[in-house]
Amino acid sequence: MAKKRQNIFDGLKNFQAALLAWYKQDKRDLPFRRSRDPYHIWLSEIMLQQTTMATVLPYYKAFLKKFPNLQSVARAPEEELLKFWQGLGYYSRVRNFQTACRQVLENFDGKIPQRAAELKKLKGIGDYTAAAIASICFDEPVALVDGNVMRVLSRVLEYKKNIALPAAKKFFVQTAQKLLDQKHPGDFNQALMELGALVCRPKSTLCPSCPVQKHCLSFGKNPESLPRKEKPRFISVDYHALLIAKNNKVLLKKPAADNLIANMWELPTHHDLTTPPENSWQKYFKKLPKLTRVGSVRHSITNKKITTHVYRIPAPNLISQGHEFVPLARFEQIPLSTLSRKIVKKFFSPESF
Ligand code: SF4
Q1: Is 129 near ligand 1, meaning CB less than 6 Å away?
Q2: With a 6 A CB cut-off, is 210 part of the ligand 1 pocket?
Q3: Substitution candidate for ligand 1 out of 15, 218, 222, 224 with most atoms within 8 A of CB
Q4: Shortest CA distance to 193 belongs to which of 302, 13, 30?
Q5: DSSP tag of 247
Q6: Which tens digit of pLDDT belongs to each residue from 289-346?
Q7: Burial of 283 from C-beta contacts in 10 A (0-12 / 13-18 / 19+)
Q8: How open is the CA angle 242-245-246, to the nearest 5 degrees?
Q9: What would the pLDDT profile of 138-166 be if each residue is shown by its tens digit?
Q10: How far is CA 71 from each of CA 102, 223, 301, 315, rounded to the nearest angstrom?
């Protein structure tokens, strides 16, 4: 297999030329393809995240008409921006976009950065969007990799391993970078994406009219069996949580790096599976009381199925640092982990404390 793949790199110029020639002739005529203005490309990429092209097009035109540049976005009232985003969903995208436009004005003299590394300093811009803007608008040779590109490359290179594993992403990032046409990085990136959208589709793949069929290890086989994506296997784990309350207030751990979910408040939760929970609870009490288990809550995070055993205890005099009794009325205003929220809802009642 390694030798077969090597043939593609040996014939790299031909692969790039075939793809670029096809793109030049057959690409869709999209409004943002008529521009290399980084504001236009940025906006289109943000809108296209999690959203189809057909949905995005009317929004893109209307938004650009109302907000023709980043200055207009930066100074717009948020409600006005949201009005033009209504129906696209994922509203954090437009909020982040406004924050990032302001960052450009404040930190970059109003000029959108040209390099991917700089672009990633802006709110809401990750690897993919940074690479899109830098390559399309400023010819930086940095490859774009998303699910679309991974699908095309998994077929071209007959990559049969599970693409859900982190090692796969690394493989595709490195491979896409090696395949990238250094002189035309923007067009090459868009060509690979366009091939995935029009020809090397998830289903009904159009191999007979594919411009790179000569280079593709899946041609004439069963390309739709790739990429192979296996859902991660769930593992079951047990956590323990303390419900300590007084005067309609519940003891919460403040957001900290070692919380189960970073930047979230949570109940005192023991999730170190190598030591008994009593070791964690010790700090809350002068003398560790007998723990009374009141029930459990089930919850899933990524590939973990968690059963959390809940213990209810009257408020101790001793409270360790980094914790606070929070009134129930404040619960809606703080970022509280879903697991803790579930536990409080299920087991807390003022009468029981
Ligand atoms: Fe995809 Fe078929 Fe083209 Fe290979 S030949 S890249 S499988 S469309």
Answers
A1: no
A2: yes
A3: 218
A4: 30
A5: T
A6: 777 889 999 988 767 888 999 998 876 666 677 888 899 888 887 888 888 889 999 9
A7: middle
A8: 160
A9: 999 999 999 999 999 999 999 999 998 88
A10: 8, 46, 40, 53
Could you give phi then psi for residue 325, rounded to 5 degrees? Answer: -80, 120
CA separation for the pair 8, 215 (Å, rounded): 6
Helix, strand and coil percent figures for the chain, each rounded to 5: 50, 15, 40
Give CA–CA dist 170/302, Å, rounded: 20
Ligand 1 atom 1 nearest Cα: 200
191 lines ligand 1 (CB under 6 A): no
Q: Is 224 annotated as catalytic?
A: no
The pTM assigned to this predicted structure is 0.69
* Ligand 1 pocket test target in 213, 214, 224 with most atoms within 8 Å of CB: 213
- Is residue 199 lining ligand 1, measured as CB closer than 6 Å? yes
CB 341 within 8 A of CB 303: no
CB distance 142 to 174 below 8 Å: no
